[in-house]
Design brief:
Blueprint lengths: L8 E7 L6 H11 L20 H6 L6 E7 L2 E7 L7 H10 L2 E7 L6 H12 L4 E6 L8 H12 L3 E3 L1 E3 L8 E4 L4 E4 L8 E3 L3 H19 L3 H10 L4 H13 L4 E5 L8 H11 L9 E2 L5 E2 L8 E10 L3 E10 L1 E3 L3 E4 L5 E3 L3 E5 L2 E5 L1 E3 L3 E5 L9 E3 L17 E7 L5 H14 L4 E5 L4 E6 L2 H13 L5 E4 L6 E3 L4 E9 L6 E11 L9 E4 L2 E4 L4 E6 L5 E6 L11 H13 L7 E2 L2 E9 L7 H17 L4 E13 L4 H9 L4 E8 L2 E9 L6 H9 L4 E11 L2 H17 L1
This protein binds guanosine-5'-triphosphate and magnesium ion.
């Protein structure tokens, strides 16, 4: 493939709900672009895009796939993205490095939750959007209903460029109101006959053409003026208006195809070649310093790695975008994030797992290289003299977690290596070796996400793993003040131990004053805070340690030991062994022994006095509460709300957004274990959700009692 100039390159992400036909469309584009001689199918597992064994196994895309097609002296870099919400990370990466989103909509089902979610990403990233209504050859395809849903959801910026003369098995003609021609295909699809619009369609075509002219004119003052003067625009002027409308997200053109029949694909590529912005016509990218980095091919090189795969026989393949300059084979670059020196041994233009070697790639272009030493997704490689870093990709929060374990203990280390490798490939994997829960917690986007990971580890790496219920990171705290004292005494045989600690505990809130006196069972305890330590806890909250010892009843050199004893109990709370937080401890008295008092004695005395006081202070368990946002079609609202209420959820509100209902709730993490599965079964996969940690809240009494019993039983079992 020839080296394309920056102003000849267009980067386009294929997004949309799962099953809409993105991979099938990619196959047809590659075929029409002359990259492949025969079209494969998802069913036969022989497409260019779904080449990973797990994708063939499950019959849907799991990873994004990059492919380039040359069309009318332009280079179209396309990225076929998985539609399932579980693999959203791949689509988010792709949208971040491309300049136009081609949203594939299934003509049978119209606007789906996948469409809504993906559109939201384009909104956040301010990417131009073209809607492509696919599967028009399907019996229950309904173009008009789909178009109406798009208009109801995204307003009158949705402007059709084409409409099918018929849909269903007989689909073979389409009216293009930009070209004002009818396109007609033979059953094998491909190259269309371009005919004049038949009389039967003239009026409708005229009407839609005028609507398109008006919509195109609206995006440019000069065009608007011309439109008012002449009442129409030339095709080139319409294109200019469409391009400006696209870039400004002032227009969302609608195109129609049947990807599996390869009808409309060539016209689509022509439309992309003529109308979507090239990289230099698109908004510049910002580096981490917030500086705009325009794609200048003459500048020094900066490339940004947005995707990494590990492929058989070749190892790590790093996919990158040239953010600046022109990268050449043999160039030495510095990894700005990890400091490694990297040589670009080979440069490739790719089509799935097929790689074509090239000598250089200009700013804005997308390519791949292999065998880099220490480069992960998200890293920036720079030539000497530039120090750009790019970290603009914001991945969605995790929403499904499981504990993971190698079936054979001996495989644990290998399993960790594989998990880290997978995280390098897909940054939406979060792997945490939790000291607190004594589990390896794997967080991802959903059950499918984890299922594919398991399939790959077991089939590709031959390591058996199992998923376990992840423990909940509960917390403990107290709800009232209490006093306790404890004498630790060991004076039989060997070195003696003696330490006695008297202390008061109370719930701590930021900024609360220090009282001078406490009263327990009618007895007063005067406090003279001689020294206060506020200790932020790594697991959240604080421990405040107050030295109110008077008269030297405990030597200050033993206070660190007392604090150590208390901290040991904060790490393993008295109720269920969970981290404790937000407690103030006032050590106000004690006793020493001239010989036997030592650090261990006061560590133990402090620890046990604290445990006793903690238990008498209305101890409570706190649980993590998450903000959950569910996007769903209105007909499922009742069932989804009922299900959430069954999960101790507090419904916080509802609102409609673009044809979909949004349900907001606060839900305990404990109740969210299998939420993605049950939501999918309640709504037939037509809803999605996000979840974000909100705060810790007291658990209800019945839940606390149950947790205490479970902990006791566990203690007895150990
Ligand atoms: N009849 C018909 N079937 C189609 C068309 N496009 C796709 N399909 C079928 O729809 C199913 C899903 O197609 P894919 O191309 O895998 O859809 P996708 O959008 O890539 O799905 P994900 O990878 O899960 O996001 C497959 O069985 C395809 O054969 C079409 O235009 N007409
Ligand atoms: Mg796919």
């Amino acid at each position: 493939m020839k080296v394309y100039q920056t102003n000849e390159i267009k980067n386009i992400a294929l997004i949309g709900s799962s099953g809409a036909g993105k991979t099938t469309l990619s196959e047809a584009m590659l075929y029409e672009g002359g990259v492949i001689k025969r079209r494969g199918t998802v069913e036969n597992g022989n497409t260019v895009s779904d080449y990973f064994p797990v994708e063939k196994e499950y019959g849907y895309s799991v990873f994004s796939t990059i492919f380039s097609v040359e069309w009318n002296d332009k280079k179209l870099n396309l990225i076929d993205c998985p539609g399932s919400d579980d693999f959203a990370g791949a689509a988010v990466s792709a949208l971040n490095v491309t300049d136009t989103a081609l949203m594939v909509v299934n003509g049978q089902y119209g606007v789906e939750v996948g469409t809504i979610n993906m559109f939201r990403y384009t909104e956040t990233l301010k990417k131009p959007v073209i809607f492509l209504i696919n599967q028009l050859d399907k019996e229950n395809a309904d173009y008009d209903r789909t178009l109406l849903q798009l208009k109801e959801t995204y307003g009158n910026k949705v402007v059709p460029i084409q409409y099918p003369v018929q849909t269903g098995q007989d689909f073979h003609q389409m009216i293009d109101v930009l070209k004002m021609k009818m396109y007609q295909w033979k059953p094998e699809g491909g190259v269309p006959e371009i005919l004049d619009i038949p009389a039967s369609e003239k009026d409708k075509a005229e009407e839609w053409h005028n609507a398109l002219v008006e919509a195109a004119a609206e995006n440019d003052e000069n065009l608007m003026e011309k439109f008012f003067d002449q009442g129409s625009l030339s095709e080139d002027e319409m294109r200019e208006g469409i391009r400006k409308g696209l870039i400004a997200r002032g227009m969302f053109p609608v195109i129609c195809v049947s990807a599996s029949k390869d009808m409309g694909v060539r016209r689509l590529m022509e439309f992309l070649g003529n109308n979507v912005p090239t990289v230099n016509e698109s908004a510049p990218y910002k580096n981490t310093e917030g500086k705009d980095i325009a794609p200048d091919p003459k500048a020094l090189t900066s490339i940004f790695v947005f995707k990494t795969t590990v492929e058989p026989h070749i190892g790590r393949v790093s996919y990158f975008k040239v953010m600046l300059g022109t990268v050449k084979t043999g160039e030495d670059l510095l990894n700005e994030d990890r400091g490694s020196k990297e040589r670009i041994a080979q440069l490739f233009v790719v089509a799935g797992q097929n790689r074509m070697e090239v000598s250089e790639l200009q700013a804005g272009d997308i390519g791949a290289t292999v065998k880099l030493k220490d480069v992960n997704t998200g890293n920036t490689l720079n030539a000497k003299g530039v120090d750009n870093r790019f970290d603009f990709i914001k991945y969605p929060n995790s929403k499904y977690r499981r504990a993971i374990k190698a079936v054979n203990e001996a495989d644990s280390e290998k399993m960790m290596e594989i998990l880290n490798r997978m995280r390098a490939e897909d940054p939406t994997w979060v792997v945490e070796q939790s000291k607190e829960l004594k589990q390896i917690i794997l967080s991802g986007q959903g059950e499918f996400h984890l299922k594919t990971l398991k399939w790959r580890i077991e089939n590709n790496d031959k390591v058996l793993i199992e998923f376990l219920e992840p423990k909940i990171p509960y917390r403990e705290t107290i709800t009232k003040s209490a006093r306790a004292d404890y004498r630790h005494k060991k004076q039989s045989g060997g070195a003696g131990q003696f330490g006695e600690v008297h202390l008061i505990v109370e719930p701590y809130q930021e900024g609360m004053p220090m009282p001078e006196m406490y009263k327990f069972n009618g007895q007063e305890f005067k406090i003279q805070a001689r020294d206060t330590q506020e200790i932020p806890l790594e697991w959240g909250g604080k421990l405040v340690f107050v030295n109110s010892i008077v008269g030297g009843s405990i030597d200050t050199r033993f206070l660190p030991a007392i604090l150590k004893g208390i901290m040991g109990r904060m790490e393993q709370g008295p109720l269920t062994g969970s981290y404790a937080r937000d407690v103030r401890v006032i050590v106000y008295d004690g006793k020493m022994h001239p010989v036997d008092s030592n650090e261990i004695s006061f560590m133990l005395a402090g620890r046990n006095a604290f445990s006793e006081a903690f238990r008498n202070a209305g101890p409570k368990i706190l649980e993590p509460i998450y903000d959950v946002e569910v996007s769903l079609p209105s007909e499922y609202m009742g069932d989804v709300m009922g299900d959430l209420q069954g999960r101790r959820a507090m419904i916080m509100g509802m609102n409609s957004e673009k044809g979909y209902e949004k349900l907001l709730a606060k839900v305990p993490l404990k109740e969210m274990g299998n939420y993605s599965t049950s939501l999918s079964s309640i709504t037939g996969g037509r809803a999605s959700f996000t979840m974000k940690f909100n705060a810790y809240e007291l658990v209800p009494t019945d839940v606390q009692d149950k947790l205490l019993k479970e902990y006791e039983a566990q203690q007895e079992a150990e």
